[in-house]
Amino acid sequence: MKSNILIIEDHYFVREAIETCVKEIDNDCNILKSSSLNEAMACLKNTSAEFKIITDLDLSDSYGFNTVKNIFNINRKFDIMIFTAHNDFELQSYFMKMGVMGYVTKNKTVDEVKASIKMFLNGEKIFDPIAYVTNSDLLEIKYLRINKLSKKEKDILKYFSEGNSIDNISNILSLSQITLNQYISNIVKKLNCKNRYTAVMEYQFMKKYGFIQ
To answer: Which of 104, 125, 142, 188 has an alpha carbon within 20 to 30 A of 91's alpha carbon?
Structure first.
């Protein structure tokens, strides 16, 4: 029975390179390619076939956590290998707990990538050894904390992360500076951060990897 492989990657040359590696390993498999998550979702929703999926985290229409979550929402049984430029052991550990089969970074050599894809197609897990001893519970706590913020609190962090001053944000949201400072104080407490700056950094990290709802 032929294996079904779906490659989700918005960079053409990377997508073609992954296909070449897959064909060298299993020339008899059925390969589908998508340049966006929406395109991939349309493909997956219209079939009952089992798929092994190789996907980037950052796509033109999705990024990070949301990319994997949307695929699993269709079918938790899909095998997923993440192929990404983000080398973060906490992220690796988190995705491992989600049920992802592998996390491979794009700084690997061609031979290393090919070896990783071969392991994945054979049903083996591929993670950096450090990811197995990295505690992803803190990331999950941060995820829960930041998504308990109100929309206005998230907007305040968004505007700060874009480089706006307190004066600008006060004008944008039609808030007095006293009220805005109270919001900031509440945000810092809710996120268990030291100050506004670390709260903004945490927001930027969680936003970058798609953890903010």
So the answer is: 188
Q: What is the pLDDT of residues 79-121, one digit of tens each?
A: 999 999 988 888 898 899 899 999 999 999 999 999 999 999 9
Backbone angles phi, psi at 52, to 5 degrees: -105, 125
Among the three residues 102, 134, 166, which one is the final residue of a domain in this structure?
134
* Assigned token pair, 166: 């307190």
CA 51 vs. chain centroid, Å, equals: 19
Higher pLDDT, 89 or 8: 8
- Where do we find the tokens 């090919």? 114
d(CA 59, CA 41): 13
Cα–Cα distances (Å) from 143 to 146, 170, 211, in that order, read 5, 27, 6
Run of H or E including 135: none
Beta-bridge partners for 4: 30
Q: Is 105 found in the same domain as 31?
A: yes
Structural domain of 18: 4-134
User: Are 183 and 189 within 8 A, CB to CB?
Assistant: no
